[in-house]
Amino acid sequence: MERSLWLRATILMCCFFVAPGVRDIKVRNKDYSDIYNHTLATILVEYASAVYMSDLTELFTWTCSRCKDKTEGFEIIELIVDVQNCLQAFVGIAENLNSIVIAFRGTQEHSIQNWIEDLFWKQLDLNYPDVSDAMVHHGFYSAYHNTTLRPGILTAVQRAKKIYGNIGIMVTGHSMGGAMASFCALDLAVNLGEVNVQLMTFGQPRIGNGVFVSYFKRHVPKAVRVIHERDIVPHLPPYYTMFPQKTYHHFPREVWLYNIGFGSLVYRVEKICDGSGEDPSCSRSVPGTSIADHLMYFGVELEAATWASCGIVMNPGTVGFRADTDGNLVFSRDPAAALRQYRAAPAGSAATA
């Protein structure tokens, strides 16, 4: 018996130390393939990165330096830039996902400082049907609902659905962009009646209380929050167990990315956490102290090229855009034109969550 156990241990050690390098481990207690898809995550993180680009001409034409690799061939239908509030988002068609993709830019310039200052108790009632006592973060909610982003996004989705039919919708964003993406996914599900909405965010902060979480997961069941190592932002606003009614609470499902080492080997772990949203064995098991972990997911950079300003770059000859009286910009493309190119391209393999 002892010899058998020793032999098994030796074989296991050989598997770990056969060669140096970085390997991937997925930690699961059951089959979560209907909730989380690694390939999809590596695609959506590139959209979450691209939306940070400040050259609007390159972004709208999808020729920017981040508009390559797994997102190549993406067709933007609407690019919305709220200059006054330093916000940016786009809506487009991803052939390889057979879906509408909506991406929100994360914190830019001094906006992260602004919302960190109001993190603790600045909540307001969620003005949605069939829910009471649901409280949400005032700044994140307003950034989506009370700016030019929401009308531009909803209009683009409705235009796209008329052309593409019952196509799925995937919403993504990083940091504050993840918070806005979450409110967008809920908005699409509750107010537009969309039933095929998937949400995947990266380094997202908490956005509401426990009542809100119950409401959210009922209407957006296909939601994933990816957290990298000791990323500081998902630990904010703080989670206070002694104030269950008021404290901020994450919605499920968290996927925690972290590294473990065995000798010269480093393993990347993708741990799919429990359905509570606040699994104590996942990111809450470590202090959130790292800004570096916040700015890099799956090896993809998630920040603007410069944090000095919200300045934008645009070719004066760029067509298809309009500006409102506040100087906010909306770039639009006819969804029918995108469909013609979509149908002319070779069929891609869809990745679903």
UniProtKB/TrEMBL annotation:
Residues 1-21 form the signal peptide. The keyword Cell membrane does not apply. Residues 101-239 form the Fungal lipase-type domain. Keywords: Signal. Transmembrane segments: none annotated. One of its GO terms (biological process) is lipid metabolic process. SUPFAM superfamilies: alpha/beta-Hydrolases. The keyword Signal applies. InterPro entries: AB_hydrolase_fold, Fungal_lipase-type, Sec_MonoDiacylglyc_Lipase. This is Fungal lipase-type domain-containing protein.
